[in-house]
Amino acid sequence: MNNSILQNEKSLQEQINRANKELSILYNISNAMRTTLELNHILYIILTGVTAHTGLGFNRAILFLVNNKDRLLEGKMVIGPDSGEQADRIWRYIKEANQNLEDLITADKISQRTTQSSLFKAIKELKIPLDKNNASLLSMAYYRGTPLHITKDMIAQYANDPLLQIFRTNELIIMPLKSKDQVKGIIIADNLYTQKPITEDDLKIFTMLANQAGLAIENSQLYEQVVYKSHTDSLTGLWNHGFFQHTLNLEIEKAKENGTPLTLLIIDLDNFKKLNDTYGHQNGDLVLVDLAKILSEFSRETDYVCRYGGEEFSIILPQTARQHGLAIAERIREKIGKHLFSQHAIFKNLTVTVSIGLATFPTDAHNQGELIARADKSMYIAKFGGKNRVYAHELEDD
Predict the structure, then answer these.
(1) Element (H, E) at 191
(2) Residues near 142 by Cβ (< 8 Å), separated by ≥ 6?
(3) Around 43, how many Cα atoms within 13 Å sit in the side-chain half-sphere?
C-alpha cells in the first residue's frame, strides 16, 4: 500500500472522527435544550455548548436577544473568564473534575457562571439599535442574517465599533440565531486566551448549533408569553393574586435561608365605591390602571407589584426591613395623592388617596399566612384611622 493511499485513508478517518465529534456535540446540546422551556436556562445551555470543552470549545461567548418592541439588541448573558489566569484555573478544574456538558448546564450554575464577570456587567448595559443605517457589527449581522467572521486582518477597521469597545479581541465570530428566517438573537464568540484560529469547520458546526438554538429560543419565548399571561391581571397588567401567593411563599423561603427581612405592603384605594358610583365602573377601571402604573414606576426591579383583588394591590419587597419599607410606602402614598387624573376628561383633575398596611418577616410574622393577615390588618387600621396614611404592624395590635 503506497503512501498516497495511506494518507487518503488517514485523511478520511480524520474527517469521520471530526464528523462523529460534531454530531455528538450537536446531539448532546440539542438534548439539553429539550430539558427546559425556561428562557434563562435555554440561553445558558446554548452558551455552555459554545464554550464547553465538550462543546465548540470557544474561550468566551456573549448572547444578545432581539427586543422587537424597542427595536434593539440587548446583552443577556456572558460565559467566559476575565483573564488568562482565571481561564487557566477554570479549564484546569474542569479537566481534573472530568466534567461533561450535563455537569456544566445544571440550573444552579447559571448565576455562578454568567453574572459575576466584569464583561457581563458591561455587556448588560449595551443596547444596539436595529437600524439599517446603523453600521455596527451586530446590526450588520442582524440584517444580513448570516455569520460574520472578523479575522485578525479585518479587526482594525472595526476598532470603534460599540461591541469591540467592550469585547476586546483580535478575532471573533458573530452568529445570528434564526427561527423561520427571523433573527431571534446573536452570539459573539472568540478565542482570546488560547489564540486558537477560527476555522471553516468551526463556522460550520457553529451554524448548525445556531439553527437549533434559534428554534429553542422561539419556543421558550412563546412558552414564557403563555406563562406570563396566566400570571397577570388582564386589566392592570400587574401580577395576579395566584402569582402573588406563590411568589410570596418562595420569597419567604429565600428570606429564611438567607436570614434577610421581607416586607409586604397591602394598598387599598380610598373611597373607591363612591368613585365608581360617581363616574361609573368603566372609569373606575381607568383609575385602577393609572394606579398600577404609578406602583410599577415606584417599585424596584427586585419587587413584585400585584393586584391583590378589587381595588387592593400588594407589593412584595424582598430583602427589605421595616424602616425601608415604611419609606417606600410613604413615597407611594404621597405620589398617588399628588397625581391628577386629568388625562381622562371626565375626571376634571380628580385626585385619589390610598391606605397602606405594612408587615415585615420575620419580626411580625413567622409564615406567609401570618404576614398577609398582619399587613391586611395594618391596612384596615390605616383606613379606619382616617385614610390616606401608612400603618406598620405593631406587636400590641395582636
Answers:
(1) none
(2) 66, 73, 130, 176, 183, 186
(3) 23
Question: Sign of the CA dihedral 53, 30, 107, 77?
Answer: positive
Nearest C-alpha neighbor of 43 from the set 233, 187, 191, 224:
187
CATH number of the domain at 101, please. Answer: 3.30.450.40
Q: Does residue 235 lie within any of the structural domains?
A: no
Strands of the chain, DSSP E: 60-67, 72-79, 127-129, 148-150, 172-179, 182-190, 262-269, 304-309, 312-318, 354-361, 390-392
- Per-residue pLDDT at 377: 95
Same domain, 129 and 172: yes
* Cβ–Cβ under 8 Å, residues 308 and 241: yes
Clarify whether residues 320 and 216 are in a common domain: no
Q: Find how far residue 210's CA is from the centre of its chain.
A: 21
Average pLDDT over residues 371-375: 96
Residue 125, CB-side half-sphere exposure with 13 Å CA sphere: 8
pLDDT of 158 reads 93
Kindly tell me if the per-residue pLDDT of 181 is higher than 90: no
Share of the chain above pLDDT 70, in %: 84
Model's pTM, two decimal places? 0.67
Query: Looking up cell 384605594, which residue turns up?
Result: 269
Whole-angstrom Cα distance, residue 128 to residue 64? Answer: 9
Domain count, the chain: 2
Closest by Cα among 191, 175, 171 to 81: 191
Domain enclosing residue 347, as ranges: 241-397
Q: Estimate the crossing angle of helix 281-297 against helix 272-279, to 10 degrees.
A: 130
In the numeric block, which cell numbers belong to residue 179? 427561527
Average pLDDT over residues 146-161: 94
Nearest to 368 by CA among 259, 256, 231: 256
pLDDT digits (tens, 9 = 90+) for 40-79: 888 888 888 888 776 788 999 999 999 998 899 999 999 8
What is the sign of the dihedral through the CA atoms of 334, 340, 343 and 345?
Answer: positive
CATH code of 374's domain: 3.30.70.270
Alpha carbons 241 and 231: distance in angstroms, whole number: 8
Write the burial class of residue 139 (CB in 10 Å: 0-12 exposed, 13-18 middle, 19+ buried): buried
CA-derived radius of gyration, the chain: 27
